[in-house]
Amino acid sequence: MADGRKFWKTKQLEEMSPQEWESLCDGCGRCCLHKLRDDDTQALSFTNVACRLLDPDTCRCSKYERRRRFVPDCVSLTPATVREIDWLPPSCAYRRLAEGKDLAWWHPLVSGDPETVHRAGISVLGRFVSERWAGPLEHHIVDWPGRAPRGRRIPKETGEC
Question: How far apart are CA 28 and CA 148, in angstroms?
Fold first, then answer.
């Protein structure tokens, strides 16, 4: 941001440019984990199984622009869908802003470093299995994707965890 303005503090989600909207994604990969919903109770369960398109090194979609060609039911986030769906992780910038919260300290727009989300322990880096190898999703139910992550503070003097 050349002018130093923090657009996420001055604009509503609906007012953001496509570039601003896309920059809200912190690259944690939590939304790319499969979820299960009980048909009877509608209870939501999270898994540690990721979409086959999730890159294990970056925690970003390997075919983002063409993802719907490969995964037709991939959800495209919009201001309306962000406010409707109940499975976005509590750390998600889209969800946080929709709820009137600020971005977290480890978010790349705040920290200035896209790796902070990984170093802080927020992302799924090293914590998931690809759907290609997982087997039944019921065997992979975990609760951490739906919990607010604590996030490890990175010492300022060294920049290391």
Answer: 13
